[in-house]
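Tutorial, part two.
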Amino acid sequence: MDKEVKNQEKVVGILGGMGPEATLELFRRILKRTPAKSDQEHLRIIIDNNPKIPDRTKAILHGGEDPLPLLKSTAQNLEKAGASFILIPCNSAHYFLGKIREAVNIPIIDMLGETVARIKEQRVGLLAADGTAKSGLYQKYCQERGIEVLNPHNSEQEIVMKLIYEIKSGEICSKGKDRLIKVADGLIKRGAKAIIVGCTELSLLLKEGDIQVTLYDPLDILAQRAVELARGSI
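Running the prediction step on this input gives:
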């Protein structure tokens, strides 16, 4: 890496712990996308893995404990530690994005906005936690671009939520992947031309090539965006 690129490099901050497996996976994907040939050519990444942040879906839909205070303080920790910008590898946490941004003086990358900006299809299926799906987070972005969003039927959404919490408890297996593919296939049969993996836990199960249509993985998109921003290549 030449001196000019080194001087441009920014420090990546990850507001993690929602859940820890998704945070670890984002870190891994950033490493894989960084064109480094030595330790020194990798990016500096500061991770605050804070699993004590209350459940976002319970807060959004069921009046559960407010996660915003810890989301704000964790973002502030990253800023104080020297992060140039912040990534949040949790879709439902983006429900609180505006308020978190108010708490810091560095940029927070909008994972959902980055994802929808890449969608070329006019009808997509969404695999996401209840908090993301029922609050209309992706629908808001997609509506602005004339994209229709299909949610799983109620019984299918129950399967999705069960899988998410299984992954959070450490259960990642082929049977779970098969169940998720079945839900995705249901959305495709209803007319979805692409699928958004709108929960970072589900990114651990579903990969490009597992389904018949284009797969948009926000965790992948966030990792690539982080590398580009940190290296000053955009």
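The domain at 3-110+220-231 is CATH 3.40.50.1860 (Rossmann fold). In part three we will examine how such features are distributed along the chain.
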